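Notebook entry, structure prediction.
Reason for the run: the old model in the group folder had no record of what sequence produced it. Starting over properly, with the input documented here first.
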Amino acid sequence: MKDSETMDAFMTKVMSVLNQLQKYRQDLSNKRVIEKFLRSLPKKFEVIVVSIEEFKDTSQMKIEELIGSLIAH
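New structure, fully documented this time:
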């Protein structure tokens, strides 16, 4: 994610890539997608990423829940 990019624009890109992967039958686990999503966020989101990782079970989390958590912050 670029510093100038909005969260909505970034999430749209991520969902587009996921849809393309599913189209080509490349199944990724939600956990792996969430981990990559959180790692791709800029440093200004570090506090939010740490709180999500600490207080939520990312292995059971769905992408929609992650998006909701990020929007809530």
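Summary: The chain has four helices and no strands.
The old model has been moved to the deprecated folder.
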